[in-house]
Amino acid sequence: MGDTGAKQEQHKTLIKICGITLEEDAENALNSGVDAIGLNFYAASPRYVTIEQATKISNLVKDNALIVGLFVNAEPDFVRQVQDKVPLDILQFHGDESPEYCEQFKRSYWKALRVKDSAEVAGQILAHAKASAILLDAWHEEQYGGTGETFDWDFIKDLTLSQKLILAGGINPQNAAQAVKQVRPWGIDVSSGVEESPGIKSAKLMKQFIEEVRSV
């Protein structure tokens, strides 16, 4: 798995809570000790936020956690429009974006890959060599993340990454500690696993999730 293990030894696991839609949820996430929050700009998602919503949440979060903007096969002009108005630290591309697409914005980016075929994922990891992190998520034919489903974490043992590894897909307070122990990722990403309903986070579950990750 390349140098991912070495990187893990040098820092605490980064915790990202994705799909924040409310200022109150962002505040609860910060109070629980989150490292990064994700704002979803994919209109087909139940966790979608408008630029106006994202700006309000970002003003609350800014300087207290990383702000990650999630896009799925978005028009480049829309990504630039969001960048101009929302203080994003990182762009996360969760669709079928090419390396050339991701790199055109001249910003640090994370590339999410849905795990289905090992050879295909390995090729995508290699192609996105300039990504600062690779986020591995569960495969779903129709959904780009937020499925609440896990994938076989043993799959990762056969991968070589020069980028940082973020683990996603079906992680919740019940399996978060095990995920960190087994995979030793640089970061861990949760969305549906800490929700009361799609897009509405549970303060209790966020706190439990972060405590479980930090217990390892």
Keywords:
single chain, TIM Barrel, 216 residues, 10 strands, 8 helices, 33% helix, 21% strand, two-stranded antiparallel sheet, alpha/beta
Characterise the protein shown here.
By secondary structure, the protein is of the alpha/beta class. It has a single domain, classed as TIM Barrel (Alpha-Beta Barrel), CATH 3.20.20.70. Helices cover 33% and strands 21% of the residues. It has 8 helices and 10 strands. The strands form 2 sheets. The chain has an 8-stranded parallel β-barrel with strand order 1-2-3-4-5-6-7-8, surrounded by 4 helices. The chain has a two-stranded antiparallel ribbon with strand order 9-10. The protein starts with a helix and ends with a helix. The N terminus is likely disordered.
Write the layout of secondary structure elements.
Layout: H1 4-9, E1 14-18, H2 23-32, E2 36-40, H3 51-61, E3 66-71, H4 76-85, E4 90-93, H5 99-103, E5 109-115, H6 118-127, E6 133-138, E7 164-167, H7 176-183, E8 187-190, E9 195-197, E10 200-201, H8 203-214
Parallel strand pairs: 1-2, 1-8, 2-3, 3-4, 4-5, 5-6, 6-7, 7-8
Antiparallel strand pairs: 9-10
Please sum up the structure shown.
The protein has helices at 4-9, 23-32, 51-61, 76-85, 99-103, 118-127, 176-183, 203-214, and strands spanning 14-18, 36-40, 66-71, 90-93, 109-115, 133-138, 164-167, 187-190, 195-197, 200-201. The protein is an alpha/beta fold. The strands form two sheets. An eight-stranded parallel β-barrel has the order 1-2-3-4-5-6-7-8, surrounded by four helices.
